[in-house]
Amino acid sequence: MSVDAELSALLTETRRFPPSPDFSAKANAQPEIYQRAGVDRLAFWADEASRLDWAQPWEAVLEWKPPFAKWFVGGMLNVAVNCVDRHVAAGNGDRIAYHWIGEPEGDERDISYAALKDLVCRAANALTELGVHKGDRVAIYMPMIPETVVAMLACARLGAPHTVVFGGFSSEALKNRIIDCDARVVITADGGYRRGTAMALKPAVDEAIAELADVRSVLVVRRTGQDVGWTDTRDIWWHDLVDRQSPEHPAEPHDSEHPLYVMYTSGTTAKPKGILHTTGGYLTQAATTHRLVFDIKPESDVFWTAADIGWVTGHSYIVYGPLANGTTSVMYEGTPDAGGRDRWWQIVERQKVSVLYTAPTTIRTFMKWGEDLPAAHDLSSLRLLGSVGEPINPEAWMWYRKNIGGGRCPVVDTWWQTETGGIMITPLPGITATKPGSAMTPFPGIGADVVDNAGEPVANGGGGYLVLTEPWPGMLRGIWGDEERYRQTYWSRFDGMYFAGDGAKKDENGDLWLLGRIDDVMNVSGHRISTTEVESALVSHPAVAEAAVVGASDATTGQGIVAFVTVKGNVAGDPESGERLIAELREHVATEIGKIARPRQILLTPDLPKTRSGKIMRRLLRDVAEHRDLGDVTTLADPTVVNMIDEQMKHQPSTEES
Ligand code: WT7
Fold first, then answer.
1. Tag placement on the chain: N or C end, fewer CB within 10 Å?
2. Alpha carbon of 240 to ligand 1 centroid (Å)
3. Which residues, 6 or more positions from 207, have their beta carbon under 8 angstroms from its beta carbon?
4. Three-class DSSP category at 233
C-alpha cells in the first residue's frame, strides 16, 4: 500500500462523534446556516455585521480589487462602543466582563461591563492628554492584567492602532516592532507574575527605547510593586494619570476600514511581518465566529481562552469577540502549574467555566501530568472544548474529550492564522460530526480548498496546499509598510487565491485535515510525509509524552526523518531501556503509518525547544539534526533546552539501519 492509501485507510477508520440531540436542539448554529451562506455569502456576512452597532451604514458589503479587500465600505462604527458601551446601554452593566485571576493565589478581580466602560473612558482621556490622536500607533507591552484590555480598547476608541507585543519578547524584539510601526507612546507595567516570580517588563522598555527619541511617553501600570528605573520627562504612572480622568468619553465613529491593530508574526525570513487588521470586517468575523463556534450564550456562559493577549488568539477570543458578544470571560495571568499542576482545574471548578479554548501543546502537557489531576475536580460546568494553534493529534484530542470534557463536550478544532483574524475552518457544535484530528469544514461564508502544485483542487482522498478562495471579513489588509511583501507572501503562489502556507488533506468525505506548515512537510524517497503524521504516530505510543519530527537532508533518500521524543515518567531511565524503547518506537511508527515513515533517528530528550507561545521550534531541531550551528535562539522560552539536545545529538549514534 502507498503512503497515501495507508493514510486514507487510517483516516476513514477514525472515529466520528455525532453531535448529541440535546446540544443540537439548543445550539446557536442550525444546519441551514451552511446552505444560507452558500447561496449568498455576502448577504450572510451583512446579516452578521448588522448585529453590531453602526453609526453609519455601509454602502457596499465588499469591494474586492485583488489582493486588496474592503468590507462594509463607507460604514462607520466604534469598536470600543460595540464591545462595552452598548452592553451597558442595554442594561447589562452589572454583567461581569472578566473574572480576572492573577497568578499569586487569591489575587482576583471581577470587572463588570459598567466598570470596564468607566476604565476605558478614563484611559482614552488619559491617552488624549498624552497627545495620542486618531491614526497614531501605540505599543502595548503588558502582562495578562485587566489594564491590558483597557489599554487596547482605549486605543480602539480613539482610532489609534495598537500593537501588542507579547510580554515574553526581548527588548530587542520590542524595539524593532516600535520602530517598524513608528509608535510614539508605550503602555507597560513594572512587571507581572509568571512561574511563581515577579518578572520585570519596564527595564526592557527602557532598553528598547533608549535611543528612540520619538517615543515621548511611557505609561506604566503598577502590578508587582518592584523597583523601576524612571525618566521623569517621559514616564508616568497609570494610577497617577488615568485615575484622575473623567469616566465620560464621547466616542467618535471610525471608518470600517480604519486600522484597528498591527500584530507582528514570524514568517520565513528573520524580520517579523506587521499584520494589519481593520475595524468593521474584523470585528464582525471575531464576533460571529465566537458566537457560533463556541455556541456562546452571553447570559449564562463563562468563556475561557487560555492564551496570552499578546497573540492573535488573545486579541480575537479574549478581547474583541467575547466583548462584542457581551460575554463573561475568565482571564488568567500565569502558568498552568503555578500553585499546583491542577491550577486550571481549580479555576474551571470555582468559576464554573463552561467553554474552554486552548492549544494542543498544553493538552499534551496535561496528558504528561496525568488524568488524576483533572479527575480530582468538578469539571461538570464545561459544555464545549476548543483547540487552536497547531494540528491536534488524535491521541490528544481523545484525551481532551474524555478527561476534560467528561466525554460529553463537543471538541472544536479551529484552524486559522494571525493573518485571517478569526476562525476559518472548524466544526460547528451541534451540527458537525467531529473526527479526532480534523478541523473538518470551512466556516459558513468562508471559501477554503486544498489544491495541487498547479492550483487545481485535489479530489477527496488527496493532499496538497491549503488556500482561501474568497476574501473574508477578518482578512489582513496588508503587511504594515510593505505592500510588496504582502503580495509576494500570500498572493503570488496561486492565481487569485490566498496561500496559507499549510499542507492539508481532504479525506474520503471531503473533510479537511491540516498537516502543518509546508516547510514541515518532508520528502523521503519521493514520498510526501508530514511531520505531523509521524508525531501523531509517536505520541500514540503509551510511553511518549511529546514528539517533534523534522526532515533532515539525507544523501540517499532526500530527507530522513529525525524524531525528538520526550517520554512519560522514567521509561528511559537507563541506556538499555532507552535503546529498547527507541527500537520499539521505530516499529510503532512503521505499524501506524508504514515503513517509509519510520524515523531514521530517534533522540529521547527531557524537553523540547519551544517558543514562548508554546510552539515547538522545528527549525532549530532541523539545525540540530543536520549538525549545523544553531542560529538565533533568543525567541525560545528556554534556550538551554536546544543546546542540551544539540550536545546529546553529538553523542548519540544514529539508530539508522544499514
Ligand atoms: C499557523 C498560524 C490561530 C491563532 C494561533 C496561531 C497553525 C493554527 C491550527 C489547527 C492545524 C493550525 C497553522 C497556521 N494552526 N491552528 N487548528 N490545526 N494547524 O496563529 O501563530 O498565526 O499560526 O498555526 O500552521 O498556519 P499563528
1. C
2. 40
3. 171, 175
4. coil
Out of 3.40.50.670, 3.40.50.12780, 3.40.50.2300, 3.40.50.1580, select the CATH number for domain 1-78+272-459+470-497: 3.40.50.12780
Q: Which atom of ligand 1 is nearest to the CA of 514?
A: 11
CA 9 to centroid of chain Cα atoms? 31
Q: CA nearest 295: which of 27, 48, 30? A: 27
- pTM greater than 0.90: no
Please tell me if the CB atom of residue 415 comes closer than 6 angstroms to any atom of ligand 1. yes
On the CB side of 157, how many CA atoms lie within 13 Å of its CA?
28
If we measure between CA atoms, which residue out of 471, 147, 428 comes closest to residue 309? Answer: 147
Q: Tens of pLDDT along 219-277?
A: 999 999 999 999 999 999 999 999 999 999 999 999 999 999 999 986 555 467 899 99
7 — phi, psi (to 5°)? -65, -45
pLDDT at 629: 84
- 639: confidence class by pLDDT, cuts 50, 70, 90: confident
Measured distance between the N- and C-terminal CA atoms of the chain, rounded to whole angstroms: 23
Q: How far is CA 120 from the centre of its chain?
A: 25
Cβ contacts of 144 within 8 Å, gap of 6 or more:
167, 192, 308, 309, 331, 332, 333, 334
Per-domain residue ranges of the chain = 1-78+272-459+470-497, 113-252, 525-651
Best residue among 358, 390, 467, 535 to mutate for probing ligand 1's pocket (most ligand atoms within 8 Å of CB) is: 390
The minimum-distance atom of ligand 1 relative to the CA of 392 is 18
pLDDT score of 554: 78
Largest CA distance in the chain: 76
27 lines ligand 1 (CB under 6 A): no
Mean pLDDT of 75-91: 98
Distance (Å) of CA 3 to CA 222, 330, 586: 57, 44, 16
Closest alpha carbon to 525 in 562, 561, 557, 560: 557
- How do strand 138-141 and strand 185-189 relate by DSSP bridges? parallel
Task: State the DSSP H helix or E strand holding residue 217, giving kind and residue range, or none if neither.
Answer: strand 217-221
The CATH fold assigned to 525-651 is GMP Synthetase; Chain A, domain 3 (3.30.300)
> How is residue 241 written as a grid cell?
494619570
- Evaluate whether the domain defined by 113-252 bears CATH number 3.10.20.120: no
Is it true that 1-78+272-459+470-497 and 525-651 share their CATH fold? no
| CB contact at 8 A, 103 and 333 | yes
Picking from 534, 498, 490, the residue whose alpha carbon sits closest to that of residue 516 is: 534
Pairing mode of beta strands 558-567, 544-554: antiparallel
Cell representation of residue 399? 484525551
Specify the pLDDT at position 611: 84
Alpha carbons 469 and 562: distance in angstroms, whole number: 35
DSSP string for residues in 354-404: -EEEE-HHHHHHHHHH-THHHHTS--TT--EEEEESSPPPHHHHHHIIIII
